[in-house]
Structure formats: C-alpha cells, structure tokens
Amino acid sequence: MFDYKLIEALAMVSMEGGFDKAAKVLHITQPAVSQRLKQLEQATGQVLIARTTPPKVTVAGQKLIKHYLQVKRLEDDLSRQINDSGTREFSSLTIGVNADSLALWFLEAVRPFLTREKVLLDIRVNDQEQTHKLFKNGEVMGCISTLEQPMQGSKIEYIGRMHYHMTATPQFAAHWFPKGLNAENVQHAPAVIFDRQDSLHHKLLLNAFGLKSSNIFAHYVPSVEKFADYITQGLAYGTLPDQQSRPLLKSEKIINLLPDFNVPVDLYWHFWNLKSALLDDLTETLTGFAKLFFKIA
C-alpha cells in the first residue's frame, strides 16, 4: 500500500518545478520534502526524480504521479457528493491546452462550467502537437491535442478543425513579394513563427513550394496576440487560423498569400477514463461548445 503523503510530495515537486516551491504548497520544510521523496524511492526501489534544475521526473515517477492524481480526482468527486455546495472546497483540474485554442475560444467554452462549479483550472499551455505528452506523462487530466488515437487509459472526443492560412499586410506583400509569394522570394522575407515546436509555417511552405525549415528567416513570438500584431503591423508574414484571420481579411488589413493552400488542424479532447462527474461535466461543456463554435466558424 502506498503512502499517498509521500507521492503527494513527488507530485508537488514535479508540478511546482522545485523542492522549495513544493514545500511552500505543502506547508512543510524543504528537507521534509526531500525526506518524503527519499522514503518513497526506498519503498519502490527506484529513482523517481532526477535532482536537476528543474527536477525531472523519471518514467516510474510519472506513473506514480498519474495514479495519485487519478485517486485524488475520485476522492474529490466523493467529497462533492457527501458535502453540500455551501461547504464544498474548490476542486482543481489540471489540463493541457494549445495556445490558439486558449486565446480564441477556450475561456468562452468553459465559462458556464466555471460559473456553476467550485473548480479551479490549472492550465498548461503547449503546442497542439505537444500537449498529449503532458497527458501521457500524467501531468494533466485532459488535453486538447492533434493526436487522433486515444492513449492507454483515456477517452477521446473530436472537437473541430482549424484551418491555417499564410498571411501578410498588402504593404508587406507589395514590398517583399511584388510578383506574389514564390519559392525564391520567401527565402528572403522575415517570417513570424510561434516557437520552435510550431510546424504550421513550415508545413504550408512545404506543401506550396517543397521548402524546408532551414530556408527561411523568422521571428519567434510565443504569444497569440503579439504574433498577430507582427503580421498586422507589417513586420513579418505568417500563419493565422480562420477564427483569427477572417475579420482581418474582411477589413483588408491582411491578405491571403497562398489562397490555394492551407493547413487543416483537427483537434481532439483527451481525458482520463475515470468515473468522475466533474471531469465528465467539463468534457460535455467543452466539446458541446467547441463543436458549435467550429461549425459556425
């Protein structure tokens, strides 16, 4: 039988990014956190966390954290059933969301859920092609991802599709692409890319011209709002999803540089296969809104 007080210490070190921060959350000293991890590693006979900066959880440690969070989720659900709404404590749900979804529709989707439930969301932001790694490692209870297949011990719901287009201001295009965007001039103009994990820009250029990522110059701007500003202020060309580009195209602030090409991105909601009323409620609220949103969009 595991001592969940010890596993909780491991989870907090991982989630908070250090021993000192975990100690503050647990209201104990940093040596006490270290002692609990030492006891847990002795009990399991395995190294559970590498003492790096920040600490890195091993595969065995990830499995223990995932188990702990699932048990905690079920205990929280039971507590909600036993206690009436007036005396309930806040529950916490940790989820992975891609930056575009968070900026463009996620808050509106979950607002009804947050209004009717005493719940706090701990959102981990990553690229839509990377969020499933957070889920696989047990760091989040659900995630929005491009992964089409459910992972072990999980369920999956289709959310919708986002189309990404290559855009720029008319003035930027006239200066850098006077004869239209082509395989030659695209290698000399400044692009804007979200971060080094973002492959959408490269996919569009690969589809249109067969160009690889090393052939372009790029700003890296990991902010959805400022990313769009780089484009609308004529500093770079880059990819924008339908939901963000449509009003800008309609007002003629930007143009579509490659009207015959786009990158479709299908999004899926992955969540633990648990009998959790709160997680089921979040899933129903999130997917219901998203499907309507993407249908209209």
Summarize the structure.
The chain is an alpha/beta fold and 297 residues long. It has eleven helices and eleven strands.
Strand tally is 11
Mean pLDDT: 89
The CATH topology of one domain is given as: D-Maltodextrin-Binding Protein, domain 2
Helix content: 40-55%
Morphology call: elongated
Q: State the end-to-end distance.
A: 51 Å
CATH architecture of one domain: 3-Layer(aba) Sandwich
Topology pattern, helix = H, strand = E:
HHHEEHEHEHEEHEHEHEHEEH
Radius of gyration: 23 Å
Give a description of the structure.
The protein has a domain at 162-265: Periplasmic binding protein-like II (D-Maltodextrin-Binding Protein, domain 2, 3-Layer(aba) Sandwich), CATH 3.40.190.10. It is built from 11 helices and 11 strands. Strand 1 (49-50) and strand 2 form a beta hairpin. With 297 residues, it is of the alpha/beta class. The longest helix is centred in the first third of the chain and has 24 residues, at 59-82. The model has no long low-confidence stretch (mean pLDDT 89).
